[in-house]
Write a structure and sequence with these properties.
This protein is mostly helical. The protein has one domain. It contains 2 helices and no strands. Helix 1 runs antiparallel to helix 2. The chain is rod-shaped.
Length: about 100
């Protein structure tokens, strides 16, 4: 059986949160891009480019948030399972050994 220590799960969730923050900043920067300043010849293409990338980055941000939430949830599930297993084990040992 492979065991993943709680600190590893916690750090991985934090790492995904940080990635979501970075992606959110990138999306905000793209939203603030002034493509009209590029001139009428390229503004339409630049707008499509920015919107395409913003859509992709927003999807990646949502995926990072989902990964972080999933890791946090599984950590809580593991903790609850460990607590229940400990209680079940104590119930099986003689009273003097509890």
């Amino acid at each position: 059986m492979t065991q993943v220590p709680y600190p590893v799960i916690i750090q991985a969730a934090r790492d995904w949160d940080e990635q979501a923050d970075v992606l959110h900043s990138a999306s905000r920067n793209l939203t603030q891009a002034e493509v009209a300043e590029l001139g009428p010849r390229v503004a339409a293409a630049a707008t499509r480019f920015v919107e395409t990338w913003r859509t992709e980055i927003d999807a990646m941000e949502q995926a990072a948030i989902s990964h972080s939430q999933a890791l946090s949830a599984v950590r809580l599930d593991f903790f609850a399972t460990d607590q229940q297993a400990s209680t079940d084990l104590r119930d099986l040992v003689p009273w003097a050994d509890r």
